[in-house]
Records
---
Amino acid sequence: MSAPLTPPPPPHEHSASTAGRPFTGSTTAPAEDAAHIGPAGSAGSAGDGGYGQDGPGMKTELREAAVTAVAVALGGVLLGVLWWWLAPRVPLVGDAVDGNWVVYVKETEGEQAVGVDGTFTLLALALGAVSALAVFLIRRHGGVPLVVALAVGGLLGSVLAWRLGVWLGPAQDVIAEARRVGEGATFDAPMKLGAKGALLAWPLAALVLHLGLTALFGPRDPEPHLPADPHLPQGPYGAPGA
């Protein structure tokens, strides 16, 4: 004799019996919850004041960049003094011909003029490296305004050093100087930067070294955390299960 079969509960009883148990199947998130599942927390950025926080940050970077440019440019005073002190002198000789003074280089095969440009270039490269290292140690976060300020400050410092060295050097009026020292006497030529491309040595050296230091030792941006897909089954540690 077989056991009597239990008839299935009515539809309303089945709904009542399952109302207290959690639903484990997949479903579509409501419209009000979908805004919180956007890519990388896009929702809520307006409420968090993300746009408002960018303003003060950019102002701070521009202020730091302006201070950096001025400080680096003032280093041109040191470059100008060192250039005037260490650069070789070009000897000149004055001669009076029929009452007219003629000035010419005493050593026509000398390399003093090349040494003047070379000294400026080497000193500018050294100061470019020092300024890049100092800026990196003070402001490790870097940023485009800071890099631009470093290059602009280096260029302004080179121009300042060039003009300061010329001003500190021998007199610019070589005819008057030849008359002062007398015929056949040797005197120094004015400071002159023949290769104007040497003015770019400081900013280029500063840019290359600063970018290299930032790439090697600068702070790293945190990896973005992607939200999990609610439609995928989750593993024991929050990772998508098999």
---
Amino acid sequence: MRAFFLPVIVIAIATLLSGCMQTLSPVAIGGSQSDLDAMAYGPPPVSRSVAVARSSGGAIDALRNSFAATPRAGYAAPVPVAYAPRDSVYQLDAGDKLRVVVYGQEGLTNTYAIDASGSITMPLIGSVHARGRSTAGLAADITAKLRNGYIREPSVAVEIESYRPFFILGEVQAPGQYPYVPNMTVESAIAIAGGFSARAKRDIVTLTHTDGAGALRYEVPLGTSLKPGDTVQVGERWF
């Protein structure tokens, strides 16, 4: 009997093993990435021949859109500038007072005011045009004139001792001309002029700036920087 059942048991075990081996097949690990994973880590690599279906709506799409609408860190949207003079280098004009130093020449070192014609007048060399020039450009012109028959190797420096005044007109308590102070704003200029009148328009003013291109007019808020020689016009409100 034992000899009879032994072959039967072996055949049964072999049949079971072959069935298990047939059920084991290679399995592809993967699948579609969830929408939240895609937002956090980026979309999964997709073969060109595979069409990817997108979600058609719901809370996940709304969340994705909110992330897309949020500005990236470090990015600032450009803001239009209402008042930006073309030249960043200060240009001299009538009313500016200059300290001119000619090293080793005490008779030439002095304070000079730019007159209405836009020039300064110095000993030996006479009139030197200053309007529209920078301090460095004016120093170079003075050096060239002194070298022309007066001083062999002149060394000249020019600095601004005081700026030309600004003007404020319209609906302020005391319109007129006032000394310019560096880093002034339209708001501080209005304060110097005694503040707004009762009928003043208080949110925006008209500012006129003159440079090499001529007189340029801007409508600016009160925090705008003021330049020497600028004119501020405070308008009247209608209600």
